[in-house]
Amino acid sequence: MGEILLTIANDGDWQPMALAYEEKHGYLNAYQLAEIYAYGGETETAFKWLSHTATYRDPGSSWSGISQLLRPLHADPRWPAYLKSVGLTD
């Protein structure tokens, strides 16, 4: 995951790396995939993976409120509903 994030930060071609990570880890790393796609600016795909974290109670979702990688999603109107779905807000 670190290599993918570094590639995003350096404006590299990160999507093929993310797809390979997704194929290898899939639902077992749904939260990490959400972070990757959010950081890469792919909001729709990030929310797709966040939906899986809520559905399957991914333990990573407990970090959602403080993850800097998810900050690009905070302005999206779906963000508060997601936080509520994982029990981070009332």
Summing up helix and strand content along with how strands pair, one would put the structural category as mainly alpha
In which range does the helix fraction lie? Answer: 40-55%
Number of strands: 0
User: How does the overall form come out from the CA principal axes?
Assistant: globular
What does this structure look like?
- The chain is an all-alpha fold.
- The chain has one domain.
- The protein is 54% helix and 0% strand.
- It has five helices and no strands.
- The chain has helices spanning 2-9, 15-25, 30-39, 43-55, 79-85.
- Helix 2 runs antiparallel to helix 3 (30-39) and helix 3 runs antiparallel to helix 4.
- The longest helix is centred in the middle third of the chain and has 13 residues, at 43-55.
